[in-house]
Every structure is written in structure tokens, then in C-alpha cells.
Amino acid sequence: MSVAEAAGLAIPVRRRRLSIHFRPSRLVLNVVLVLVAIFWLVPTISLTVISFRPEGLFGISGWWTVLTAPSQLTIQNYETLLSTGFATGGILDSLVTTAAITVPATILVTVLSSLAAYSLVFGRWRGRTAVFLVIVALLVVPVQVALIPVAQLYDAFGNLTGLKLFGSLPGVIIFHVAFGLPFGVFLMRNFYTGIPKDLLEAGRIDGAGEWTLFRRVVMPLGLPAAASLAIFQFIWVWNDLLVGLVFLGGNPHHTLTIFLFSQTRTLAANYWVISTGAMISIIVPLAIFFSFQRYFVRGVLAGAVK
Amino acid sequence: MAAQARRRSLVLRRIVATPAPDPGAPNLEAAVLPETGRAPGGGWRRHLGSLAFLTPAGIWLLVIVGYPLIGTIRDSFYNNDSTKLVGLGNYKTLFSTADILVTFRNNVIWVIVFPFLVTFLGLLFAVLTERVRWATAFKTIIFMPIAFSATASALVWNSIMSIDPHVGMLNASIETVDDWFNAPGLYPVNASAGQTVASLAATGLRPGPGATLESTATVAPGQTLKLGMIGISPATLQLVGAEKAVVPPAASGAVSGVVWRDFSPSHPAVRGVVFPDEDGIAGLHLSLLSSNGSSVASTVTDAHGAFSFSSLSTGSYRVEVVANNFASGFTGIYWLSGTQSLTPTSGLSQTAQALLSVPLVDLSMITAYLWIWAGFAMVIIGAGLAALNREVLEAARIDGATEWQTFRRVTMPMLAPVLIVVLVTMIINVLKIFDIIVNMAPSVSQANTLAVAMYDFGYASSPSANGLASAIAVILFILVVPVIYINLRRIR
Amino acid sequence: MARVVLKDLTKRYAGGNLAVDRLNLEVADGEFVCLVGPSGCGKTTALRMIAGLEDISSGEVSIGDKVVNMLPPRDRDIALVFQSYALYPHMSVYDNMAFGLKLRKTPKADIERSVREAARILDLERFLDRKPGQLSGGQRQRVALGRAIVREPAVFLMDEPLSNLDAKLRVQTRAEIARLHQRLQATMIYVTHDQVEAMTMADRIAVISDGVLQQVGTPKQLYEEPCNRFVAGFIGSPSMNFVELKVQREDGMRLVCEGTQVVLDDAMAAQLRDLGLEAATVGVRPEHLRVGEPEGPGLRVSATVDVVEFLGNDALIHAAAEGRDVVAIVGADIHLAVGDAVILSAAPRHVYLFEPQSEMSLGAR
Q1: Fewer CB within 10 Å, N or C, chain C?
Q2: Can you tell me the ipTM of this complex?
Q3: Which residues of C touch B391 (CB under 8 A)?
Q4: CB contact C140 to B (< 8 Å)
Q5: What pLDDT does A73 receive?
């Protein structure tokens, strides 16, 4: 008895196992998939192991020798890397810088997208469809088209007001938000269109204003979509290299990706710094990935057009 | 698992289409307010109210995306410091500079190879996991790299693809396999570094056929030979456990002797004498050649470099140091080489060569990028598969289709829209690929892409070349215009 | 053409859930058999096992005297019409019907002929070039039938093929399927939860509940001689009324409860006496209740009219008898108003008795 049938639902799409005459190949299939999974895990494992091996062993023996000699493992690299504390340009400073960019950019995108989507779905002004189509068009516009003029814009703004945007965190954040918005509005709008309009009409009859309707009715209902958007945006911004590279300019504070990038570009690349730094840089997005995988998948599915 | 799959398909439908209305929510009849009717009691303020919600995002997009887009297009027609109109000059420069053309070539390679491969892998994984119990675990493993920055992933793959088999796992794996078939000798001669076997001969040895050495003199049983070699480092000898060279005593019916490192720090200029501070060459494979040149016996030198062929019939012999002592084994493939090309194009003009060659580094980077994005393709295609009407697939089986026919003639056509979405998404993704290139390819390489070139022109060069950079940005934009069109049509 | 035999057919899901429990059924060549039962009773699972879409946990399915347990669907010589129609969305109507024949490497001309013929029978000729997405529900349904017909299978299997149609179309298509069966003279096994469909179309009906076969018989048999309370309640619309009554032995045998009594005729009384029962479940169909005192033995209920539903020719009465709801169909000429006290009665041959524990019919013993 399928679940659908048991629940008394007439669901035409029933999910059942495709094949029943497929037993012997099951084993082969499983073996192949195990091998693929191992292959996929190897890079992550190698990064982890290298970050825990003494600097001196790199280039003498491969990281895989740890399988036979686990005593090589040490946290020495982490101690060395973290020992500089929050010194400017160090790994912890980069971690803080990255977070200081990612968190505001994520919050801004989520909130502004939700508001804009509300207006596009529940507003009564003309031209909503046109605006939405413009936003859809912006979905795939590459960041490259804005890099140079925005930098000039920041300079001009700085000359006018004395507030330096180029080379500052707000400058990076502003840019990230702008390029996060089309996707955010798109995702939130698609979700909001599923909320019955009657719900808002009922609220209006009860005398609720637009802000109250947004705050008390639409936003709570849209929370799953907002969570998907926030997680997607967080990982996106956290992992960015190009925007930070351009708009942080001469700023001595680096993002994590810039920290790693500049390590590879030095002549004597210190692989122990790189691998340990890379490990530290992926901890946060990885934690978010595993805690909110479901929301993340939703975001990915919704963002299939990005 | 079925429930999970359904949930996943629900997720897709829900996000793409609509959320399920909250059943507990109050649900007034729509008749209360006509759908398009003006609100009773005139609500221009309300119109304004909801329009105000759009304002922050709208202004943000206008200032940071809209205006700059126009600015970039304008800049692309100006010279590099935006002071003089040059018309299509920048574009002409781009399309006539060999380095930039190579950049275009790389973008073409990426756009052609990567999206298809990643879609294929995603489809493969999505289909195969339909039938296993641990699909969720598998999918998580494949999907996980998407949480990594492309920068970190590039660094991981840098180490995996390192040329040094002590660092790079890929080369280490190849070395292991290679060693089974082609074991390296104890005293490898690195031909690519210009070393030759002949240069190792010092005393009583001369180059033999192939990469061998043989004794210059012939010997009869009962005689001893002193064979001196140079060009072998003390470190190597220490590694194989060599000790002080000792000349063995002559024995009747046997050819004996010593092979030693004929270089004494105390007598650096003297050859042919076995000094006490000279080591024997241990573990060397020797062969005894009869007068007609055929091998009649073989042996290995001991730690002191001594050897002996016993129970020989009378005659004249030579001692040969066989070739496999010097086999160099596997020295590593330079996966990230920007110059090694997979498509030999010699005989063509230089420009044609540059444009038609496929650098190895491109394919190596594509491999790394596949590792990142295959999970994405798999998840989307998996959701598409889960959303298919199972009964249609069953109908095909009832109609007599085999598994493969069902897949080929029913599943694939039904899945086509999803595959196209993945393909298009990935094309847009690699069109502006940047992080992987700058972190994986050698600094000055033939692997640059448009996005990297634009960054170099706009920011990494001094003074910056805004005109050229803008022109590249405009080209990138033009390339996504068809996708914009497709998206708009799909939404409408 | 072939007969289908199910022998102890069982489906046990991982986790021990029994969907179908030792189902035994013989479907004769050319017979139209309906598997009917409430949602989730296992009827669809049974059908899918016959089709080869579901593993058989134990037991046997034979089609045309051949055990087909291990055969894939394509080798079973069956066609299945799905609840969702399961048309190939990317193929035209023609290709949908031709697909199975193409896979069997049927010559092109033969395919053309079969498909045209099926399209003619089903009045689909104008739609052959359309995609399923461009068809109405009823047209899709006919394409699904056509896809089955062109294959000329030995056995037609249908899984609730009418459940996605609106009421009017359902009646039409019902007749169409019945006609189709007449014309093709093929063996058909038809799954539905709607007993009206089963009653109108089937040669024989198999009633299934909780994976267990309750009774097999012609529609008339099931209606007149239900073997247990479940079948009695399931077959017939509106459902049979049931009431628990106590046996009273004074003054001849009778069953009583407040407001309701049954005076037994001799045969019934003898049976009850033999069994020594102290109580029994009494069932009577709404259409067998009439207004007025019983003439001689039989059932008598005194009740108060709750709701009157006017149906045209007659009226459906819901009446309350000491807290129990009794439904009766009475002629429209009998005028009853809400709140009226009414005596309802039924003749002994229309009174069904069931054992309260086993719920088995006493008549069937």
C-alpha cells in the first residue's frame, strides 16, 4: 500500500521503485557509486589531512602516507596560523572581514527582496509585470558589466562627500547587494504569488496597513523562502573572490578568498598556510550547508536560472 | 525514501510555482473585494505604500546595475582613460590581439566542454541514485563541494594535480601503476635533465648497447675487475645502504670484482684507485657476457660493491651493468601546464596553433570545476526526475520498452526542459569564470578567460585599460542576451 | 485471449505491511472482473502485481495457463490503463498509440492500420496529430484506452480509469468501456473504488478490504447475498442500514432494541436458535424500507424524520430512531415533513442478519 493510497489521497504521481528485475546489477551499481563517492571525498580529505601535517613533510611524502603513519598529524599549522591573532591581513582578520561583508549583505538582500517582492505581488500599481520582467532580465547579467563604472561612482561619491566607498567594506557590501537583489526578488516573488490574495484582503478589511500586512502576514508565511534566499546569498557572498578583489582595492583587510589568493600568488607558496587557511575558510559555509541543507537545496532549485 | 523523493519534488514545484496555501489561515471569499477594483475609499496612499516597498531595491538596482551597464557600454567606445571616443577601436584591438584571441579560445573550450560534461554527470548520478538506498548520503557527498569557494577548491586541486608525485595524488597514482610495469632502477638517470648513462663511466667501463655500461676489458675466470663510476651522489648511495668499497679476492673459476664510486674527496683528481673513503655501488644489477655478447649469468653487487660470477667455464667474458639500473621511472605529468597542448597543431601558422590547441591546464581546471558543480546538476536533475509522472514510465514498460528504451525515448524527452535549464545555467556560469583560473593556472599562462583578462585590464595593469576592460564586459553581456531572452519567454 | 488465475497472491512490504493477503481469484477468458474496495485496500497493488509492475511476495499469477511471476510486463501480453492516463507528453496521440507497436517492431503499415482503427472506434481521428497537453480529460482518457486497444493484448488491466473525469463524462465513458468489452471480447480486470462502476460494468465483482478478498460474485449475487457486513455495506447506494439488536425469546423469536424490532420468520428463528446467539446485527437496505406497519413478520422501526432529500421520483429520508440514523428511500408521493413520526418496515426477505462478532452473514452460512 503506497503512502498516498493509505492517506486516501488520489495522487496520480506515485513514486515506486522503477525496476524489479534488476537484482544482480544492484551490487555493481552500489560498488560504482561507492567508488564515485570516495573519489568525490578525496579532495576534501586531502585538504584536511594536509592542513594537519607538519609543514616540513609537504613535498617529502604524500598526504596519503597518513594512512600508515597517523602519528604525523599535528595541529601545529593551526597554532602557527592563529598565533598572529587578529593582526591585519591575518587569517582571523580575514575571517572577521568576510563575516562583516557577508552578514550585512545577506540581511539586506533578504529584507529588500522580500519588500520588493511584496510590492510586485500584492501592490496595486501599474507596471508591476514590466518591473518584474526587468528583474528577470537582470538575473543573468554578469557582474563584470558594473565593475568599472561602480568603481568610478564610488570615487565620485568619495570626492563629493568625503565618504570613501572604494576600498571599504560598505563599498563591497553595496555591490554584493545589488547583484543579489534580482535573484532575491525573483525567488521571493515566486513564493509570494502562491500566498492567497484573500489573506491580504481579509487583513485589509480588518484595517491592517501595508506594513502590518507585510510584517504580520506575508513575511511569516514567506519565511522558508527567505531562509533559502539568505543561505544561498550567504554562501555566494562568503565565497566571492572577484568583487572583494576589485572593491577592497588597497584595503589592508582581506576576505578569506583574497587571503588564499594572495598566498598562491607569492613566489614561494606556503602550502601549509594555504591548506590550513582554506580549511578555516570553508568551515562556516560547510556548517551552514550541513545545518540547512534542505533550505539550500530549495534555493538552488529556485535559482536554476541564475 | 519515497517520501523523501516526493518531498524533494514538492520542493521544486513549490519553489518554482507556488507555496502551498496555509490551510489554517483564514480564507475569506474573494468576493469581498473585486480583484481589479479600486479599493473603496480611495487608496492612493496605499498604492504609494506598496510602491514604497519596491523603492530601496529599485534604486539600488538602478544605481549599481542599471546605470553602470550603460556606463560600461559607453566606456567601451572610449580610449583607456575614457577621454577620447574611439568607436569600435577597443573591439578591433580585442579581436586582433593574439593573447586575447587565446582568451576567447579558452572561453569557447569552457563553454563547449564544461556544461555538457557537468549535465551528463549530473544526469548520470541522478539516474543511478534512483535505485540505491543510500542516495541521500551519496547526494550529500557529491553536493558538498558547492559550499566551498572556488578559490579553496582550486587550491585543493592544485595540490592533487601537482607535478611532484610526492605531493600530487594524481601523479602519485600514475607513478604507482607505472612502477608495476616499469620499475625505476636504484640509480635513475634523468634524461630530461640532460643526464646520460655514458657519463657515469669512469674506470674500466664504457657505454654498451642501449643504456648499458660494460667493462672495457675482457676477463677470464680467476681474474678480478675494478669498475669505477662517477656522477652518483653520496646521498643516493646512503639511501641504498652502500658501504666502503672492497675489492673481493680473486677466486678460481670465478669472475669477481667491485663497482665503486670512483671519486675520493681526499684525492679528488685520482681515478682508478679504490680509496678507503670511497663507497661501493650497492645493489647494482650486473650481467656476464660471453665472447659472442650473450648473457650467461647475472648477479647483484653487495653493500661494498663487490660481485662474483662463479663456476664459469674457461673463456673470455665482459661484465655488463644492465640498463634497468638507470631506469628513471615516472617523473610526473604537468597537469597545470599552460603550454602543453592536447591537440598537436604543428605545421599550422602560429596564430592558428594558438587558437586550435587545447591546453592541458584547461581540461585540468574543468575537472576541478566538475567536482564543484556536478552536485548542483545532480540535484536539479534529480528533482526533475522525481517530478516525472511515474505512471508514464510504467506505461512504457507495459508497452514493452526495455529499461534503456524507456530512458532514451520517454524519460529523456520528458526531462529535456530540466536538462536545458542546467545546461544554460552552466553556460552562464563558465562564461564569466574567474576564481578557478586565477587560482589554478600558472600566473602567466595560456589559460586566461575573458573575465580574467578583463580583471587584468581594469585592475591588475597600471595604468588601467578601462576601454578594453569595458569592451570585454560588453562582450560578456552580449553573450548572455540570448539567455535573457529565453528567460523572459519562459516567465511569460 | 486468456484467463487469469491468482493463487495465494500476497504482497508484503518491507516493514511487514501486508497490502494483499493470499488473494485467490479466477478470471475466465473474456470475462470482465472488477476489483472493488475502499482506497488503500490493496486492489491497485494486486493489479500492479498482475501487470508485473510490482514484486510478488508470494503466490502465483498465471495468465493464459502460464505462470508469469518472473516475466517482465512486456512479456505478459497485457495492457494497462492508468489512473493518470500516463500518456507520453512529448508524443502525438498517434505516436502514443503506436509506441508499443513500434517497440515490437510491427510493420509500419500494420501500425498505421491498427492506430487508425482504434482512433475510429474511440472517435479520436481528428486528434491524431495533437499532443496530450492539447486534449481534454475525456479525450486523454480515450487515448489511454486506444493505446491499450492497438496492442490487442490478451488481458486488459484498468486502474481507476474514470476517477479523473467529471461525473457526466464518467457515465459516458463507463458505457464506452462496456461497449468496448462487448466488441473485443477480451479479458478485463478493472480496479475501482466506486461500487456503482463495478455494478454497472462487471460480469463479476471481487470485493477487497484490507488486502483480503471478501467475496466474489455477480453484481446480483453481491447485492442479494452479501457474505458479510462489509460487503453488504459496500455494495449498494445509499448504504445498508445496520443496527445491533438483542434476541428476545418470549412470544416467538424476535430481536429488539428501543424503537426497533424484528419479528423473525421461522427459518430465521431456527437459525438463530441453532447458533444460540444473544444478539445480532440487522441490516436493511434503504430501498427496501417502506412507510407503514409491517404485514406479518419483518422489521419495524419507529423514528422521527430528520432530513428529507427530494430526488424526483422518490425521496431519501434520514430518520432518527433512538439516536441511530436510518436512511430510507420512499416514493415521492408519500409526503413526510421534518419532525414527523414515522414507522418504517421491511419484509423478512429483505432483512439481513449478521453475527455481531465475525460480522458474517447468517444467510450465507
Answers
A1: C
A2: 0.86
A3: 82-86
A4: no
A5: 85
